[in-house]
Structure to design on (785 residues):
């Protein structure tokens, strides 16, 4: 299959431009793992959209830079005056520290005019500029892959512009616990935007779980193992641990130039063991902690003094931010102190370089390193660890890896995992690594080398893209099945033409008045039938050619009260209880249903009922509902979000239940208690009772059914009835099968209708129960004519 073109959008382009003349430019590689990773995307026709690392204000400059970059497959985004507050401000002084659990520093510049709001405004503006560039270059069918926290608003802008665009978003940093993320003032806007993407990716399960939790507790949406569900729309959330391009490192480390460097460096280091650190000079990389641990090691291991050195490549980054200047000073302070303390005339224990290094030299260093020391306090992945593994030669080195780096999960088995905050622990690990036997080093290396070789950047990108294409293709197929406005004319015509009709109607939201027209209810008992439907419903029910079923989650007594006088079937508590209004209730609860969770859930529901004025609890044999429609809407929603957290963490963490989030309710019921599963039993009962001679030739199923209850809409799909099914039996607990002679539907005489939902399994939709009332009126009028 032809691969779609890929538009990669990230803050930085892989190259940083420098103006060398009015129309001429030179380029250097941009630092950081994201660029290294995406350079591996070879199997896609890729255009890379991003900031060229320089502000260009004149038209000639913009034009010539765009032309030169186009030769490299890059498209520049000129951020101009918003760049500082966007990149140094909102991205790297607000989002970055929060995402890495550092909290928000007060300011990145000593300037009273720079506020949180002005930085967020710059962020919005910058995302808009990115959007404009994508829009200009987008061709139908392209996949747009947005990278990182710099462009969290972009998915929304793209989808608003063209809902058919295939959009993915991947976060290269950690996503923090919701407790930390919650502190961000624009927390909801960013989450909502990210959720408009088709696929959201993270490096580790922890980050994905934190994201899902944040969506649940901040937006109140439902999270499942597949992703986030909001009003029927699913955003897929998945884990894609990034890798490197192993061949690039393996091959480079074999070049003769690199081998020469290896010899030279070994000679320069005078036989001392080499501990290497390669990090951007960033607060999250834990470089001061690394120095303190090394100091501790030297302090406690006198024998090793003069025999081991630490070389730290501290790649300059984000120089415009005060915190990054401070960390540099801190590092220099530690290095000065430690070198002063343990250095000699011929050698110092630490070499700290405030610069980036040439790729070949980097590979040579990786190859001769005895210990790679990674002490990130938090890190999305940390590619340096994998690069080191790929370059190792005969005598293998040891990887000491922070458990707070995403790489800890992928490379932990072949590394010494440490808590970088525990100076003593890191110092001990240094000793262990330096003293490790040759065999143990080989063993560990083998495990990690195998992993690095097989989990390449290309694999990572393929996995993400394949998933994205699969999701969007399925969505397109489903879009063809998006519900249509109900063709009332056909509903009415087919009704009068058929001779054995079945109407399945919900109660709440279907046959009640819309909330806006109603007096606020005290509790569930006050649920009342729409006054304008009463007479017409009676007419329908008394027609011998029509069978009416009200299928509701309401209790028996509520259905009795509202429908007792009609000639119809009542299915209470989602079909767990059934009766024709001329007979008694029959229980349909399966014998072995597990209801042990009920007490725990009731306890939580009661707690929230007591603390949420106006809310109430509805209990029934197999389900519990907490309803907050009479409570303050905002507070009710916030309480529902908290409640869900408690439920998921506690009473239902291991229970076989489904949670259904209504507009203003939370329902928990036993798994399998869905309206669709009940329908099979109900139908069996009706057929048995009515001694039907002709098959049902018309079904109208209307409801305000949510979540798994939507299975009732698909229950009657005509293709299902084509299969031969066994005859019904009314007194077994096993699901009853419906004979094909009982239901004989064609596409044109089956109408499944969802109320107020456009993401639904139903074929059609209506806006509100007022429309249902109108429809029933019209059916009656036409039928009487
Ligand atoms: O462009 P800068 O602001 O100088 O920062 C460089 C990059 O730093 C971050 O990299 C992350 O991505 C790596 C690859 O997935 C990952 O291994 C690492 O742990 C992360 O920190 C940042 O996320 C990028 O956007 C920056 O380009
Ligand atoms: O002078 C250097 C040294 C290293 N790197 C690269 O920077 C990346 C760092 O990625 P990592 O995931 O470890 O952390 P990040 O900097 O992205 O947070 C690695 O690919 C290194 O090879 C670099 O660009 N310049």
């Amino acid at each position: 299959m032809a691969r779609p073109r890929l538009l990669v959008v990230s803050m930085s382009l892989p190259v940083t431009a420098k103006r060398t003349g009015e129309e001429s430019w030179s380029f250097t590689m941009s630092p950081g793992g994201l660029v290294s990773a995406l350079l591996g995307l070879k199997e896609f026709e890729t255009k890379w959209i991003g900031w060229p690392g320089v502000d260009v204000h004149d038209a000639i400059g913009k034009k010539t830079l765009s032309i030169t970059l186009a030769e490299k497959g890059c498209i520049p985004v000129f951020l101009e005056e918003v760049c500082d507050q966007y990149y140094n401000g909102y991205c790297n002084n607000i989002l970055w520290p929060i995402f890495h659990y550092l909290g928000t520093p007060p300011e990145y510049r000593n300037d009273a005019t720079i506020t949180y709001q002005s930085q967020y405004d710059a962020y919005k503006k910058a995302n808009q500029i990115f959007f404009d560039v994508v829009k200009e270059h987008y061709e139908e069918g392209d996949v747009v892959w947005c990278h990182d926290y710099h462009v969290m608003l972009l998915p929304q802008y793209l989808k608003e512009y063209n809902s058919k665009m295939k959009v993915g978003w991947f976060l290269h940093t950690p996503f923090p616990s919701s407790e930390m993320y919650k502190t961000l003032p624009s927390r909801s806007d960013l989450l909502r935007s990210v959720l408009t993407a088709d696929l959201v990716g993270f490096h580790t399960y922890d980050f994905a779980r934190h994201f899902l939790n944040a969506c649940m507790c901040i937006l109140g949406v439902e999270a499942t193992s597949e992703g986030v569900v909001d009003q029927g729309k699913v955003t897929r959330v998945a884990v894609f641990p990034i890798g490197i391009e192993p061949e690039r490192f393996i091959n480079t480390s074999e070049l003769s130039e690199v081998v020469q460097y290896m010899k030279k460096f070994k000679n320069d280091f005078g036989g001392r063991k080499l501990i290497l650190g390669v990090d951007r000079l960033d607060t999250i990389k834990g470089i001061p902690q690394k120095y303190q641990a090394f100091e501790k090691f030297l302090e406690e291991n006198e024998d090793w003094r003069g025999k081991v050195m630490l070389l730290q490549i501290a790649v300059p980054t984000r120089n415009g931010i005060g915190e990054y200047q401070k960390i540099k000073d801190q590092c220099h302070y530690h290095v000065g102190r430690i070198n002063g303390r343990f250095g000699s005339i011929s050698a110092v224990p630490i070499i700290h370089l405030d610069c980036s290094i040439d790729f070949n030299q980097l590979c040579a260093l990786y190859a001769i390193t005895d210990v790679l020391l990674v002490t990130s306090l938090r890190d999305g992945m940390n590619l340096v660890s994998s690069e080191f593994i790929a370059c190792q030669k005969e005598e293998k080195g040891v990887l000491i890896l922070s458990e707070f780096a995403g790489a800890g999960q992928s490379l932990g088995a072949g590394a010494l995992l440490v808590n970088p905050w525990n100076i003593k622990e890191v110092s001990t690990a240094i000793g262990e690594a330096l003293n490790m036997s040759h065999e143990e080093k080989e063993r560990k290396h083998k495990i990690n080398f195998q992993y690095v070789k097989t989990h390449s950047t290309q694999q990572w990108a393929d996995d993400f893209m394949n998933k994205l294409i699969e999701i969007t293709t399925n969505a397109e197929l489903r879009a063809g099945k998006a519900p249509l406005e109900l063709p009332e004319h056909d509903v009415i015509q087919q009704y009068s033409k058929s001779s054995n009709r079945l109407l399945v109607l919900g109660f709440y939201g279907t046959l009640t008045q819309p909330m806006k027209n109603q007096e606020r209810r005290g509790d569930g008992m006050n649920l009342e039938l729409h006054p304008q439907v009463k007479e017409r419903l009676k007419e329908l029910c008394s027609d011998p050619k029509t069978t009416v079923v009200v299928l509701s989650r309401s209790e028996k007594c509520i259905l009795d009260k509202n429908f007792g006088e009609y000639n119809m079937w009542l299915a209470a508590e989602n079909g767990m209880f059934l009766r024709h209004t001329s007979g008694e209730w029959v229980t349909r609860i399966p014998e072995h249903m597990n209801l042990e969770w009920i007490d725990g859930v009731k306890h939580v529901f009661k707690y929230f009922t007591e603390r949420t004025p106006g809310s109430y609890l509805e209990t029934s044999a197999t389900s519990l509902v907490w309803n907050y429609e009479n409570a303050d809407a905002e507070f009710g929603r916030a309480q529902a979000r908290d409640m869900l957290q408690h439920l998921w963490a506690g009473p239902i963490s291991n229970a076989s239940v489904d949670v259904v989030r209504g507009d203003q309710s939370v329902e928990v019921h036993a798994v399998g208690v869905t309206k669709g599963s009940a329908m099979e039993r109900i139908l069996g009962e009706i057929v048995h009772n009515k001694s039907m001679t002709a098959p049902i030739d018309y079904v109208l199923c209307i409801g305000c059914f949510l979540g798994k209850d939507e299975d009732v809409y698909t229950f009657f799909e005509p293709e299902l009835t084509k299969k031969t099914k066994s005859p019904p039996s009314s007194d077994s607990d096993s699901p009853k099968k419906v004979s094909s002679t009982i239901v004989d539907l064609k596409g044109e005489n089956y109408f499944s209708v969802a109320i107020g939902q456009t993401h639904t399994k139903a074929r059609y939709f209506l806006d509100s129960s007022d429309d249902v009332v109108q429809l029933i009126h019209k059916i009656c009028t036409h039928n009487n004519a």
Summary: The longest helix spans residues 457-479. The longest strand covers residues 273-280. The CA atoms of residues 145 and 369 lie 36 Å apart.
